[in-house]
Amino acid sequence: MGAPVGYFYWMRPEDVEEVERTSDLPSKNGYMSGRISLDVGYDKSKDVFMGAEDREIVRQMKQAFGDFKMSRFRAGGHPVLIVSCRAKQSGKLVYAMYVA
Questions:
Q1: E-strand stretches of the chain
Q2: Which residues contact 31 (CB under 8 A, 6 or more apart)?
Q3: Do residues 53 and 71 lie in contact, with contact meaning Cβ atoms separated by under 8 Å?
Q4: Burial class (CB in 10 A: 0-12, 13-18, 19+), 92
Q5: What is the SS3 assignment for 6?
Q6: CA 66 to chain centre
Q7: Strand, coil or helix: what is 61?
Q8: 19 in Cβ contact with 25 (< 8 Å)
Q9: 59 CB neighbour count, 10 Å cutoff
Q10: Most C-beta atoms within 10 A of its C-beta, which of 42, 63, 90, 94?
Q11: H/E element, 15
Q12: pTM for the complete prediction?
């Protein structure tokens, strides 16, 4: 799988050379990626992450992924939403974190 443009990646230093050469992200040791989300926003007045905590979005995510879970907490006074699930086809764990 090639590395999508616009993401930031964190991986083991010894994996970087191979990724630069092939554009394939490390599947054996894993990696983390991050980006600025354009489809999820935080509504302070309602204390909700729009585009992630909406009832219909949650229903769709539960249908599309196994082991779907969401949890909320505050870090440094900022609302944080953690989403974890398992990709049905590959069985790989997928995590997302949104910080207001």
A1: 8-10, 32-34, 41-43, 48-50, 65-75, 78-87, 93-99
A2: 9, 10, 11, 15, 25
A3: no
A4: exposed
A5: coil
A6: 15
A7: helix
A8: yes
A9: 10
A10: 42
A11: helix 13-22
A12: 0.71
Q: SS3 for 38?
A: coil
Query: Which amino acid makes up residue 88?
Result: K
CA dist., res. 95 & res. 33, Å (int): 10
Top-confidence residue, 19 or 6? 19
Dihedral sign computed on CA atoms, order 6, 39, 79, 88: negative
Residue 43 identity = D
Domain definitions of the chain by residue range: 1-35, 39-100
